[in-house]
Design brief:
single chain, about 60 residues, alpha+beta, 6 strands
Length: about 60
Amino acid sequence: MIETCERCGTQSAKLEKCEYCGKKSCFSCIKSSKRKKVGRLRICKGCWSNMPKRRRFKAYSYRQE
């Protein structure tokens, strides 16, 4: 099923959800991702420019959960 990216409007078959704003983004809009205990932690380029959200992403530790 083809879906539309909520950030740039590009149509893609696989979209990733940003953990901080909740938007579905294509691979070109995802700035960075990390592994967490179960699944992956993703941040989009829009949230990357927001310093409090970026600090939360960079400070993520496996021991938090």
